[in-house]
Q: What sequence folds into this?
């Protein structure tokens, strides 16, 4: 690619050639003459500079060719770095502005943009740049980064257009364009428009009748208020928000599993219905967990940040996907809430907008501090961190149990006190001296001593262990010299599988003891574990792991947040026998987990102490685990983890109670125990006394033991109860923020400079007082002087009502986005929105009350030609209904709709076998669940529901703020043949058949489906059709017919089937016609 | 309510009059409404789908500046082998490995390259040579595994690329990357790009058709692989399924016949015309055209999916599975029929190549299920003169490791994902036949000669269709997007 500094001489030649208009290409001259008198930088110039020049001469500092940037005047006006004495832009001078010569040149070596860029300037664009430079090349800040401005509201000539500033501003624009507004829409038409826009549902015949018969001047406003107060309002508003928030019922990616986030969706619906102010609405979602004393709802709202796709493909690099999730949150903040394509700055500085790559990772760092995993676990556990959402009934039971446990705990402590005197007597009487030095310890359930080269539990010889390795049937034990007699030599891949031994719940106390001789060079490997693979199952179970020469003790439901993990940093002897003992008291706390080496307790550092669900699998089954999985203890290796290759193990023991320190000495250091026991009471150290006391309580104190058993029983009930409680993904800040870096080229493992939370300063700096966390970010975002948040929100709501935003590019308010069609109106709405306290219902009401909204959507040929996309609003909006609305319309019209709000997503009809390619099976629901609003249709990202997907529903793998609006033959097939529509047609057909006369029946069906009575031409046509269809079907022999058998609704056997069929066809014709599927 | 008609009644009478005229016309016309409506609308509305997408009110059949140059390929059939077929047991013959069986992969070969979480923690990485023998075939003397006897016979028609590579190490990102040029969801698939750029060659079938082999098991796949991303929805692939309803909702209700549907559509059109007279919205006509297209599909799809006209020797050529709808073999035969009808892009997905364990048995089954039909497709296209302007592509999303994942025994092993090199092939339109391009080291671990990146493959594919991959762009969110992102070089050496 050629740079500005090349061919200076040539440039000179051309300079003299093209300096005046007479020498410009004629087409440019012509375009120049047609330009408006005044140019505005933001309206006329920036879009050209941005789209055609910024790629190489814009904000991306790494890509400023020839050191030139044209996005800032300082850059454009300064002397060219490589061409002394020359300037890209010399305000007022065409001759001295290199840009002019370059854009007018045809020389491929010299022209700009370069031919290699595949970007070209039109004659109009060249003319604009010429005129702009000629007039002084004035720069202005990008409109969207300046706070909204109040402007004078011009009066409209028509009094009905003078009631609302919306109308006055639209009027002014129409006047400017030489257009006039349309008449108000007919009452039935506007009521249907309003009902769909505010509730997503059509008006019922009764509602229509009431409105048509209401002559009062505020009849329309009454409808607006009624619909805004409807509980379906929240559902309608939620539909768009769910696209933005990429809400789905599955994780996405390869093994696209179910995850239930419906409580979050229901919160959204409720929030709209409660009219939660928009600033709070987004603050809760971004940072509800960081609010002071957050409520459950506020924490639940943060699920917003966790709705991104999550990967459970085993083998992925955890960090690669964790990083993708953090990016996704950042991108939704950008696109959804700020209308900025911040994602473009992930790999390099933004090419068009003032967002550097550093800015991107500063934003990223706000979302980086949650204790999550890139690989979500296979068994379907809710990815951590989570919020437990008990039902009221469950909450009551849990609270009761918690109280019981607390009481029992204090009774246990009391009992311990009571036992003190007994202990003192026992001590003084030197009864401890009768503790046996070597003895079979109570609670021991297994001992694998490996003698006679057998893997048999010496305590119960019917229990056999075996060497095992996944997908291998030929593993054999290898015996060598052990600690005592034989020991088991490990190859690092196969494990000693104790089958169901060692299978404990988190509420059960247990201990595991093992002798091991580690080879010199080994730094990493699993000594023992209970569980399946490693990350693929979120480390569910427990393990002792040699990790970088440290010992890791873990118990997990779902690593990393729902787990206990602690480390011991200790020199571990090599090439000699070492014993490890893990004891656990059933308390689900780190304090209840102890680790001993050679009989001595090790000091550990607790990394996480947050186990709140169980550590077993509850015999899960699954396509890859057709047989229930519930493994017990495994020694020496782990599937897809590192094993202790070359190590020898011996004397594996399992106990179903927590061993005391003295018991561990009994097993491992009888001589040390003997030393203690031989002392007189006064000679015992404090530690020894404490050990004896613990031993006394565990073995001698009957009352205390009784209390302890009761506590264990209550804990077990509690733990089992909480398993059934619904869990949802939420945000939870880590106590210590994770470090964040610029990721070079956006790659998860290529760290650049360290970054800290901050916002793009050139859009709006964050004040020093604002906390540098998500809450601070939300506060910044909802500041009244934030140039984007309110504008972006009101634009999205405008789009919801008009089908297109005042800024067409709802997702991009940046330099490459479209300019607002009505800048003053956009600003006015934004300012009013903020001043109203971010009141969404008030905004919605203001829009739907306007004359602009209430216009007829019908337009003459001329108006349509002049403004095919209706951006100037000389008519009302006419839009094809969304897939959800089309189906809901048919359901409501047929009376099938089940209007329940919220709850788990449902599975209506869907052709069989669609999920098969995703290794899953769709089981449709039955009964009323078949007729829920489409908003609740199960949303599987990998195989979207065809009824909705065919009508442009996105797959919700990413934020979508603007759906496509296509018109395809597949849509026709859905409406004609999807059983949902066939069934609804038949049900309506039955209703028609039962009407007093056929005309009344058809008219009523028409009204139900289209919100208006048929015109004479329509009813004439339909009656004619009905006669023809009835003749056709009654002439046929009786046979099974799909119109009659489709769907779960029973056929009305009292009616003439031919009549039902004819009328079902009539209903289908109406349902497929424009009057049904288009909102006019 | 009928007495207080809330609608403006202005245009009722003329509408009714015209309606009656049309109905009497229909009675006489043997063509029916379908042909009439389409004939009058085709010029402006496009053949398959009409868009009012965010950026464009309507999309013409093809982009005005396309093709950029004379294309070699008119159509493509892409036989996607999902899961990552092993190069060791198919095309990349590595005899030196036999002496190294069971030895650990040398660090000098691995060079610290990342492994998946499935084998990264293995205690050893034992070298596993192919259990299956290789021989040279054809004039080109190309080495082919004994598992692919049929492919071996047509090897002189193939252009093997042994030096494919990708950055993606796991299925989802790797397949998504191959099909859309980006590893995360959201971008348009290759077929969507071609449909968007080049438009349709026919007017009664979808432009981009997807066939998924039934009952294969294996890694799951998902519709976004043939999705339209940010391109208008009508460019997404349409899945043809085996069985009664090849296209979702194609079939009318039982015992509701084509003539019933025709009648219904005529009535619907008449009703829509009344509404058009009322609202004057051209979208209504666009929609009528889509209903007509749907109707044509109701005829053309069953026709094209009906195998009863195929002679026995064709079934024999494709193998006995070809009589069993939904199998790979039947889908190959169906693909040929679709290509004959000028469907632009047919993509088959055949799953089950992900042999982490038990590879020798698994890959044998996969080859048996696909080899004959694959070769048959080439032979069949050739004998019909279609291979000249049809591009055939075979390949998966990555290769497999030289070392055994899991236990290596004398007759069993597994292989993990390997993105650093793998083999795929192209044949037909504009591609050099009978060559092998690129070379891997003795371990098929690294490429030593002529690497071909996924983006290069995509650029080359587009080139064969007369598209400069750097110039087929779509502006979305302010950015000019293309299939190959900012990468990709056409592999000139393999062009005929």
A:
């Amino acid at each position: 690619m050629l740079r500005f500094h090349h061919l200076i001489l040539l440039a000179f030649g051309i300079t003299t050639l093209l300096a005046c208009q007479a020498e410009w290409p004629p087409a440019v001259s012509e375009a120049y003459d047609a330009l408006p008198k005044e140019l505005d930088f933001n309206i006329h110039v920036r879009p050209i500079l941005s789209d055609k020049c910024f790629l190489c001469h814009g904000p991306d500092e790494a890509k400023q060719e020839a050191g030139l940037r044209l996005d800032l005047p300082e850059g454009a006006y300064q002397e060219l770095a490589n061409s002394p004495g020359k300037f890209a832009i010399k305000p007022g001078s065409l001759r001295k502005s290199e840009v002019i010569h370059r854009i007018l040149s045809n020389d491929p070596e010299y022209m700009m943009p370069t031919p290699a860029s595949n970007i070209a300037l039109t004659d109009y664009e060249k003319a604009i740049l010429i005129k702009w430079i000629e007039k002084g090349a004035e720069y202005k800040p990008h409109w969207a980064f300046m706070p909204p401005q109040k402007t004078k509201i011009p009066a409209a000539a028509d009094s009905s257009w003078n009631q609302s500033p919306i109308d006055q501003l639209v009027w002014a624009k129409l006047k400017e364009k030489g257009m006039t507004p349309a008449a108000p829409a007919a009452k039935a038409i506007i009521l249907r428009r309003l009902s769909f826009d505010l509730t997503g549902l059509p008006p019922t015949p009764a509602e229509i009748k009431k409105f048509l018969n209401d002559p009062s001047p505020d009849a329309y406003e009454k409808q607006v208020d009624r619909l805004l107060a409807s509980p379906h309002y929240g559902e309608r508003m939620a539909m768009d928000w769910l696209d933005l928030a990429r809400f789905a019922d599955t994780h996405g990616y390869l093994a696209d599993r179910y995850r239930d986030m419906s409580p979050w969706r229901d919160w959204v619906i409720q929030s709209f219905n409660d009219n939660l102010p928009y600033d709070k609405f987004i603050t809760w979602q971004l940072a509800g967990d960081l609010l002071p004393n957050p409520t459950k709802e506020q924490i639940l709202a943060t699920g917003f940040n966790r709705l991104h796709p999550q990967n459970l493909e085993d083998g992925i690099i955890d960090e690669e996907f964790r990083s993708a999730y953090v990016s996704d949150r950042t991108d939704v903040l950008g696109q959804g809430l700020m209308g900025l394509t911040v994602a473009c700055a992930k790999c390099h500085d933004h090419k068009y907008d003032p967002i550097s790559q550093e800015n991107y990772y500063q934003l990223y760092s706000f979302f980086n501090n949650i204790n999550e995993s890139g690989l979500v676990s296979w068994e379907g556990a809710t990815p951590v961190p989570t919020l437990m959402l008990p039902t009221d009934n469950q909450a009551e039971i849990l609270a009761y149990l918690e109280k019981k446990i607390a009481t029992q705990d204090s009774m246990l402590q009391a009992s311990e006190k009571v036992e003190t005197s007994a202990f003192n007597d026992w001590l003084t009487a030197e009864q401890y001296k009768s503790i046996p030095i070597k003895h079979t310890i109570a609670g021991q359930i297994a001992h694998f001593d490996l003698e006679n080269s057998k893997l048999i539990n010496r305590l119960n010889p019917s229990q056999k262990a075996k060497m095992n390795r996944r997908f291998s049937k030929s593993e054999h034990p290898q015996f060598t010299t052990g600690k005592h007699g034989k020991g088991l030599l490990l190859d690092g891949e196969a494990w000693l599988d104790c089958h169901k031994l060692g299978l404990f719940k988190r509420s059960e106390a247990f201990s595991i003891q093992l002798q091991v001789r580690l080879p010199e060079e080994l730094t990493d490997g699993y000594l023992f574990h209970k569980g399946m693979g490693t990350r693929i199952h979120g480390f569910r179970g427990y393990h002792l792991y040699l990790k970088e020469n440290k010992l890791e003790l873990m118990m997990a439901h779902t690593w990393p947040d729902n787990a206990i993990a602690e480390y011991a940093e200790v020199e571990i002897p090599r090439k000699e026998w070492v014993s490890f003992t893990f004891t656990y008291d059933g308390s689900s706390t780190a304090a209840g987990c102890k680790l001993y080496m050679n009989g001595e307790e090790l000091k550990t550092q607790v990394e996480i102490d947050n186990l709140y669900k169980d550590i077993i699998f509850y015999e899960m089954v699954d396509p890859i685990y057709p047989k229930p999985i519930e493994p017990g203890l495994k020694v020496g290796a782990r599937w897809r983890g590192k094993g202790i290759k070359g190590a020898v193990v011996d004397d594996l023991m399992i106990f179903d109670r927590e061993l005391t320190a003295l018991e561990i000495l009994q097993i491992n250091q009888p001589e040390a125990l003997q030393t203690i026991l031989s002392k007189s009471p006064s000679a015992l150290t404090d530690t020894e006394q404490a050990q004896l006391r613990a031993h006394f309580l565990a073995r001698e104190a009957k009352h205390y033991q009784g209390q302890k058993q009761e506590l264990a029983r209550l804990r077990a009930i509690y733990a089992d109860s909480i398993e059934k409680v619904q869990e949802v993904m939420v945000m939870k800040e880590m106590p210590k923020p994770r470090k964040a870096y610029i990721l070079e080229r956006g790659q998860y493992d290529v760290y650049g400079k360290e970054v800290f939370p901050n916002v793009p300063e050139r859009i709006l700096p964050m004040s020093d007082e604002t906390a540098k966390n998500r809450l601070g970010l939300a506060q910044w975002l909802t500041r009244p002087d934030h140039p984007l948040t309110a504008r972006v929100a009101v634009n999205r709501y405008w789009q919801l009502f008009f089908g297109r935003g005042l800024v067409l590019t709802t997702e991009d308010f940046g330099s490459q986005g479209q300019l607002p069609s009505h800048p003053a109106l956009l600003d006015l709405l934004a300012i009013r929105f903020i001043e109203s306290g971010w009141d969404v219902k008030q905004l919605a009401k203001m829009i739907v009350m306007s004359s602009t909204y209430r216009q007829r959507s019908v337009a003459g040929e001329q108006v349509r030609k002049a403004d095919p996309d209706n951006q100037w609003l000389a008519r009302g909006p006419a839009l094809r209904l969304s897939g959800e609305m089309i189906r809901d319309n048919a359901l409501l019209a047929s009376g099938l709709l089940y209007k329940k709000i919220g709850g788990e997503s449902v599975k209506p009809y869907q052709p069989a076998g669609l999920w098969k390619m995703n290794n899953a099976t769709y089981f449709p629901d039955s009964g009323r669940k078949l007729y829920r609003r489409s908003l609740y249709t199960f949303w599987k990202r990998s195989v979207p529901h065809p009824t909705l997907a065919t009508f442009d529903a996105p797959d919700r793998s990413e934020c979508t703020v603007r759906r496509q609006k296509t018109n395809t033959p597949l849509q026709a097939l859905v409406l004609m043949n999807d059983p949902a529509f066939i069934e609804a047609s038949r049900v309506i057909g039955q209703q028609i058949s039962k009407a007093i006369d056929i005309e009344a029946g058809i008219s009523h069906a028409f009204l139900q489906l289209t919100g208006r009575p048929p015109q004479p031409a329509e009813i004439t046509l339909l009656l004619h059709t009905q006669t023809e269809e009835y003749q056709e079907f009654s002439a046929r022999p009786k046979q099974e017919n799909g119109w009659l058998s489709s769907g779960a609704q029973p056929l009305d056997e009292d009616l003439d089937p031919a009549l039902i069929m004819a009328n079902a066809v009539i209903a289908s014709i109406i349902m497929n016609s424009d009057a049904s599927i288009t909102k006019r | 309510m009928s007495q207080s008609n809330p609608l403006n009644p202005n245009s009722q009478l003329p509408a009714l009059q015209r309606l009656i005229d049309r109905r009497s016309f229909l009675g006489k016309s043997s063509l029916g409404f379908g042909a009439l409506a389409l004939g009058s609308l085709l010029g402006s509305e496009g053949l398959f789908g009409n868009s009012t997408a965010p950026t464009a009110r309507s999309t013409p059949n093809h982009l005005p500046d396309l093709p950029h140059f004379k294309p070699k390929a008119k159509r493509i059939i892409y036989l996607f082998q999902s899961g990552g077929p092993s190069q060791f047991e198919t095309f990349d013959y590595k005899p030196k490995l036999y002496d190294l069986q069971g030895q650990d992969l040398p660090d000098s070969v691995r060079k610290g390259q990342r492994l998946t979480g499935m084998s990264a923690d293995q205690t050893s990485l034992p070298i596993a040579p192919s259990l299956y023998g290789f021989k040279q075939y054809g004039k080109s003397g190309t080495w082919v595994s004994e598992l692919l006897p049929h492919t071996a016979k047509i090897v002189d028609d193939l252009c093997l690329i042994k030096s494919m590579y990708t950055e993606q190490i796991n299925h989802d990102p790797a397949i998504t990357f191959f099909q859309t040029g980006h590893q995360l969801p959201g971008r348009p698939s290759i077929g969507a790009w071609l449909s968007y750029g080049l438009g349709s060659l026919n007017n009664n079938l979808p432009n981009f058709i997807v066939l998924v082999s039934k009952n294969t098991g294996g890694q799951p796949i998902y519709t976004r692989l043939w999705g339209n991303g940010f391109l208008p929805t009508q460019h997404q692939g349409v899945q043809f399924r085996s069985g009664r309803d090849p296209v979702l909702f194609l079939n009318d209700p039982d015992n509701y016949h084509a003539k019933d549907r025709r009648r219904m559509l005529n009535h619907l059109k008449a009703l829509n015309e009344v509404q058009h007279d009322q609202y004057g919205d051209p979208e209504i006509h666009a929609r009528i055209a889509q209903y007509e297209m749907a109707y044509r599909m109701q005829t053309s799809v069953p026709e094209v999916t009906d195998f009863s006209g195929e002679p026995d020797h064709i079934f024999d050529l494709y193998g006995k599975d070809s009589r069993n709808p939904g199998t790979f073999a039947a889908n190959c035969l169906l693909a040929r029929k679709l290509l004959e009808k000028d469907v632009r892009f047919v993509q088959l997905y055949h799953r089950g190549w992900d042999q982490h364990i038990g590879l020798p048995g698994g890959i044998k089954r996969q080859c048996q299920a696909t080899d004959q039909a694959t070769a048959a497709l080439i032979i069949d296209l050739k004998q019909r003169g279609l291979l000249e302007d049809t591009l055939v592509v075979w390949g998966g999303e990555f290769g497999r490791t030289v070392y055994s994942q899991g236990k290596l025994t004398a007759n069993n092993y597994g292989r993990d994902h390997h993105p650093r090199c793998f083999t795929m092939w192209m044949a037909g339109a504009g591609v050099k036949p009978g060559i092998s391009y690129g070379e891997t080291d003795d371990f098929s671990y690294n490429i030593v000669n002529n690497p071909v990146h996924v983006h290069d493959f995509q650029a080359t594919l587009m080139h064969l269709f007369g598209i400069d991959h750097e110039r087929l762009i779509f502006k979305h969110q302010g950015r000019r997007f293309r299939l190959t992102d900012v990468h990709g070089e056409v592999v000139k050496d393999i062009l005929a």
